[in-house]
Amino acid sequence: MATQKKRGLIMEYLTTVDHKKIAILYLIMGGLFFAMGGIEAMIIRIQLAVPENDFVSAGLFNEIITMHGTTMIFLAAMPLLFAFMNAVVPLQIGARDVAFPFLNALGFWLFFFGGIFLNLSWFLGGAPDAGWTSYASLSLASPGHGIDFYALGLQISGAGTLIAGINFVVTIMNMRAPGMTYMRMPLFTWTTFVASVLIVFAFPPLTIGLFLLIFDRMFGTGFFVVSQGGNTIIWEHLFWIFGHPEVYILVLPAFGIFSEIFATFSRKRLFGYSAMVFATVLIGFLGFMVWAHHMFTVGLGPTANAIFAVATMAIAVPTGVKIFNWLLTIWGGSIEFTTPMLYALAFIPSFVMGGVTGVMQASAPADYQYHDSYFIVAHFHYVIVGGVVFSLLAGLHFYFPLMFGKILNEKLGKISFVLFVTGFHLTFLVQHFLGLWGMPRRVFTYLPGQGYDTFNLVSTIGALTMAVAVIILLVNVVITLAKAPKVGRDAWGDGRTLEWSLPQPTPFYNFAQTPLVRGLDAFDLEKKQGNGEILPAESLGDIHMPNNSILPFMQSLGLFVAAFGTLYLADGQKWALDAVKDLPAQPWAPFVLILGLAITAGAMIARSLKDDLGYHITKDELIEYERGVK
């Protein structure tokens, strides 16, 4: 019986199109990749703890730093943010699901198989070793299949991200409850909306760049090959036209999570809501105008450098608007120091430090000194860890009752918070000084007596402290799921937006009746007027729901299989680049490619030919179910 139940649960998650269950899938896989990226980071710091260390070889170190950056950005931070977007946004806007539930599942499975494919490189001849940016001059010369795993894996998972971005844009534009105008949307929904628009415009340049890289390595084209008239700088432009908006794709939803937390635990409306919305949109707009500040040392010339320097300085203004609005939200509030609120409070000074060092790099002459030093490593991690990872940890504690019906242990949460924040500053604060003293980034060892020894050891101790904090967090999650009591609606007692008005666990149809939104912070508004729950915008009636489907899984599996065929297709072929053509030929590769494409095409044809009209929950069934959850 237990086996049947287990099999039923696994099949449910393989076929689900429910945004709440897809959120849990994103959380589990994003958490797994986060742990893998963290282990890679620990190996990096152990190697650099003392001079002339031989813990790992130079070649393996290059693979580890490449996979650490790639994993953390593409396979950990983004999916974990998608977990919260899926769990919260449809509920915040009063929708019963996302606009395209089938595509939502497809987006997850593409990310899943792309991430698995990329990490299989460890076991199939070596991981990519050209850095997470995979600059063409390095990636074209990289022997073996590491770079091919990178290009194909990111192509598959990137398609999933693009699908998810399109889905959230359409959902937020078309599925808001009656009365929820754009200027009544919660900040997390706003930041999700802008980040999703950025995904729609930023991912195609990366897709094009990866295709060109695949063609150069496997089919002998010359887009980036200088000897054939190509230009490696084209890759840098394509990558950073994606790469800098990617920073805001990550950090804007983080801003949204913090905005919800500040308002909830200060027990007051977010200060300057309109200014926050316009600042969010302006950050998204300016995010596409600053990519070449990553290329100040390339030689674009003083005019281009000046334009991108000014644009980079300008983007600090709307970010500053947000910082002051958060501070004024806290000011005069009745603050409750929960674990999410502590992470939010720690975020402000940490992120400001990362932002200030970013403005320092906006000056092109200064950037010539900082570039490729550990100062850049420190800056980037203060933005990504101090902004995005803090928000993920805060969001996990804040939205855990929404996703699992239980509140994480506050004592363990606060211990984990103190260790993580302390470890974070120990790790990265000293790296600013290492960079200013001349320590280059991406080096696997250094000589003694250069002044780097002490601060590298301090940095490694800080990284170990963060690792302990994450282990305590995992223990907290396990204990909470196993032993903690269930909570009801409005778990924190001060919920302001629609998602907190629902009973726990949230019904699979979300809202029995579409809610009526009468103002900003709709749930708080109704509580203050003595209603205690959201007023309905419609009478109780039948609800249409989508069917589960195995087809998103099968479509993604087919591309996963086809990627292996593509990977080995050029081996031993005279038209391929030297790095690939010297490998022994694999005669079975075309058949694997065709098999994978056939699986994907078959699933797409099945989807096209089958009239999947979903099903209806009748009014009587709805009344009975509502009695059970209230």
From TrEMBL:
Catalysed conversion reaction: 4 Fe(II)-[cytochrome c] + O2 + 8 H(+)(in) = 4 Fe(III)-[cytochrome c] + 2 H2O + 4 H(+)(out)
Any single Gene Ontology cellular-component annotation: plasma membrane
Keywords of this entry: Cell membrane, Copper, Electron transport, Heme, Iron, Membrane, Metal-binding, Oxidoreductase, Respiratory chain, Translocase, Transmembrane, Transmembrane helix, Transport
Name of encoding gene: ctaD
Domain of life: Bacteria
Function of the protein: Cytochrome c oxidase is the component of the respiratory chain that catalyzes the reduction of oxygen to water. Subunits 1-3 form the functional core of the enzyme complex. CO I is the catalytic subunit of the enzyme. Electrons originating in cytochrome c are transferred via the copper A center of subunit 2 and heme A of subunit 1 to the bimetallic center formed by heme A3 and copper B.
Transmembrane annotation, as ranges: 21-44, 64-89, 101-124, 149-175, 187-214, 234-258, 270-292, 304-328, 340-360, 380-400, 412-434, 454-479, 550-568, 588-606
Protein known as: Cytochrome c oxidase subunit 1
Subcellular location: Cell membrane
GO molecular function: cytochrome-c oxidase activity; heme binding; metal ion binding; oxidoreductase activity
Membrane topology category: Multi-pass membrane protein
Pathway: Energy metabolism; oxidative phosphorylation
Domain Cytochrome oxidase subunit I profile, first and last residues per copy: 4-518
Pfam family, one: COX1
Enzyme nomenclature, EC number: 7.1.1.9
One Gene Ontology term from the biological process aspect of the record: respiratory electron transport chain
Organism: Macrococcoides goetzii
